[in-house]
Amino acid sequence: MGIFDASNTKPEVSNTEPMPFSKVQMVENSERFQTLDRLVNSPRGALEGSPERPNMEEIRKELESSLAAQISKHTVSVTATKEGIVVSLREIGFFDSGSTAMRPDAEDTLNDFVRVVETQRMRIRIEGHTDNVPIHNGRFRSNWELSTGRATEITRLFIEKYGIAPDRLSAAGYAEYHPVAPNSTPEGRALNRRLDLVVLNSNAGSMP
Predict the structure, then answer these.
(1) Domain identity same for 131 and 115
(2) 76 in helix, strand or coil?
(3) Helices (DSSP H) in 118-173: which residue ranges?
(4) How many whole angstroms separate alpha carbon 72 and alpha carbon 64?
(5) DSSP code at position 97
(6) How many Cα neighbours within 13 Å face the side chain of 157?
(7) Residue 86's CB: how many other CB atoms inside 10 A?
(8) Distance CA 202, CA 44 (A)
(9) Are 83 and 198 in contact (CB under 8 A)?
């Protein structure tokens, strides 16, 4: 155009093949997903100001302290598991044989349990368990019904008496199929007749 001197220099030609469009798109998508992943996996507290996850070890210690009297009598045990903390209530201290109604003098244990967990965010699964002796009474036709009935009765108490949000609770009946001791001895069967309050950790089912 008369502005610049003409140049005889030719641009250098690359000997490499151009990157195919599909590969360009794949790299672009990969970078986008990495960016999204950093956002999704950011600590919720940093984004929303929500409280930190509960310290399960501290809660276990609080439960052991609150239930120390019952633990010393061997009517309650507190155990840490992969799912969370299991507070096991032995039938001998809480229910009459073949009944779902909790003994009135046993509700103090529920009071002690609720005082520790009521302000926390974790979900609680209430599990009924029996031994392998078939039940024979006019109300329940199987250990399935008895174990489920006990679990739902405690769930009802948690909601109606203690005001725990229903969406934090679940109930399950396992009959004799999750024993903690052999059913071949009276002592083992007594240990298997229990109701477990499972305080679920954040991986198993904390509140969102």
Answers:
(1) yes
(2) strand
(3) 143-160
(4) 10
(5) T
(6) 20
(7) 19
(8) 13
(9) yes
Listing DSSP states for 29-63 in one string gives: HHHHHHHHHHHHTS-HHHHH-PPPPP-HHHHHHHH
Condensed to tens digits (0 to 9), the pLDDT of residues 17-62 reads: 555 544 444 444 444 444 444 334 433 333 344 456 779 999 999 9
Q: Do residues 146 and 140 touch, judged by C-beta distance below 8 A?
A: yes
Domain tally, the chain: 2
Whether 107 is in a domain gets the answer: yes
Q: What is the DSSP letter of 104?
A: G
144 and 161 fall within a common domain: yes
200 bridge partner residues: 84
Report yes or no: 124 and 168 within 8 Å, Cβ to Cβ: yes
Residues 64 and 148 in one domain: yes
- Residue 38's domain spans which residues? 19-50
Among 152, 94, 103, smallest CA distance to 125 is for: 152
Could you give the CA distance from residue 54 to residue 24 in angstroms, rounded to a whole number? 44
- Half-sphere exposure for 135 (CA within 13 Å, toward CB): 21
Could you tell me which of 88, 85, 87, 89 has the C-alpha nearest to residue 59?
Answer: 85
In whole angstroms, what is the distance from residue 205 CA to residue 168 CA? 9
- What are the pLDDT digits (tens) for 141-196? 999 999 999 999 999 999 999 999 999 999 999 999 999 999 999 999 999 999 99
